[in-house]
Protein 1
Amino acid sequence: MTTAHLTPVGPTRFRRPSDLPAVARRLTHALESSAARVRGGGDAEAIHDLRVTCRRLSSALSAWRDALDPKRRERVQRGLRQLRRRLADARELEVLAEHFAELFTEGSLTVREAGVAEHERLVRRVALARARAAFVTRRRRIARLLMRVEACLESFVPDRPLLPALQESASTLRQEALDALAAAGHQDDALHRARIQVKRWRYHLEAMTGVAGGAEASAERLSALRTLQQCLGAIHDAAVLRDFTARRALRARAKGRDARHAALVWLSEQAERARWRALEHLPSAAMNAGATPRP
């Protein structure tokens, strides 16, 4: 649910700095395609894929910033950031609805009845959110963003030495991710921040393979980071599900619907158990990526 489905930039496909604009243009094509899928509706992964592509493209431009015009690059990154954030709520609802549907299948009749009612409500909210997402990704807006990307790439200077800056940034992002993991413990907000840092590290390594192609961005490292990102995503999704069901339980109690309240409390507890199951996998996933989270 929280993992990108786009194929990562391979460490052997692009080797010369002059190939880097081709990597960015491949991502812009993916962005345009994903936006069209969002406008079409009905594609459960379209919003997710579009947000991931925005993040990947922004990371690539940041990685190659020394070879790009700073004003053009910042303008593009600001547009990508705004687009990604405006789609965040819709994606959160999609994930919530999918996970919620899996939560009540083995419950009692009362639990299933409450689950179906709440899920139908979520489905309606998802439909509205997707309609808003279709407006956010209207053709004119996407075309304008792509024009800015192309203008930014036209400023690319291929003969500048990129590798030292890329390696320095990779080292910085690695340390930030490791520090965030070490400080996270079991706190939801801290784990979510660590997840964001791991994403930044991973996407930077994918971008720098266009220049380096070395061990720092090896397939093994990228695979380990993806697994770690998946683990942190599962923890986050379960926490969101737990909090949602807890809020709905409080609302049911306030309305005097005792049976609905009890069913939703049970579902909230199930979500918390799922969160702890995901947490159990975090130490091994973190160690494989080069980190050891604090117990």
Note: Residues 219-254 form the longest helix (36 residues).
Protein 2
Amino acid sequence: MHIGINAHLLAFTGDYRAAGLSKHIGDLITALLDQPDDTHYTLFTGPGARNAPPGFAQSPRAQVQASRWPTLQPEVRIAWEQTVLPVVAVRAGLDLLHCPVLVQPLLCPVPTVITVHDLIFLRYPDRFPRLKRLYLTALAGASLRRARRIIAVSTATKRDLTALLGIAPGRITVVPNGVDLARFTPQPPAAVVAFRRAHDVPERSILYLGTLEPRKNLPTLLRAYAAVRAELGDVLLLIGGGKGWFYDEIFRVVRELGLDDGRAVRFLGYVPDADLPMWYNSATVFVYPSEYEGFGLPALEALACGLPVIAADRSALPEVVGDAGLLVDPHSVAALAAALRAVLTDTALATRLRAAGPQQAAHFPWTRAAHETLAVYRAARR
């Protein structure tokens, strides 16, 4: 097969753009190229790919076509996808085009596969930027009707596709995201101690990683943390992630609770991918109280590193965390505080969760995702 992948959201900028969807696309491409088959790939990227690190897509089965358009700008990328991508897909002689982020060209001359990560803009329209919501609402349904096959990254997302957009379940295949099990793993104790010392992280700390936006439910986390800190004393809350949208309430709650003295809550900003394993290894517990996740990769990475995980008991998070973490009602400050208190004080519980995490994460290797994605490609060509 000759497969094209629209990789214009794959960023090589070393900032927040390289997280999330960019990371998914890069890891999937790497895993596909590691598969022992004769599939050939054309990777359509933005101009940043010219500055890609050595080794990116260095495979005889992959060709990178870097656009001259400045597609890091969303409006430029959208225009490129709808006007140029259909043309270059034909010129490349593709058997199939994979659009890994919900939208495809509305006039596409080759069969397509679309990956859907979540439908936040439909589930929580009031918590989503208006222009982005309007764009996705307008193009998502049309794109999905035209796609030959659809990949959902979780069973929860598959349910949403059927419930919110009326997509027939038989057209949707669930292919979970993967985690790099060679990188996200328990680290040597000496390295952890050195990292904590270098970053001034105390013995007890709570870690959150993710975009600062409403659905991540950080005000509830802050209130639960304030209750635990009042009881247990010096426990640091580390909040990592770039600013998304509608994040002012987060900082207002920090001030309201008197946590703005610099000793209680520390905002890390965007955490580079290379540093993530050590941050996971250096914390005492990872907490992810998000109200809605299409998958929940940070929770999976934390599990792989052997960090006890507390997560919300809804959307896709129970699929990812399973029995290896504590699942709580994300709207209950008391429930979240109780779970934090339990992990921080119950040594037996923390030990059990640290052992269970890597075992759960082992169910999500990127090799599995690549193998199952290839099966979807083959089905779409029939």
Note: The mean pLDDT is 94.
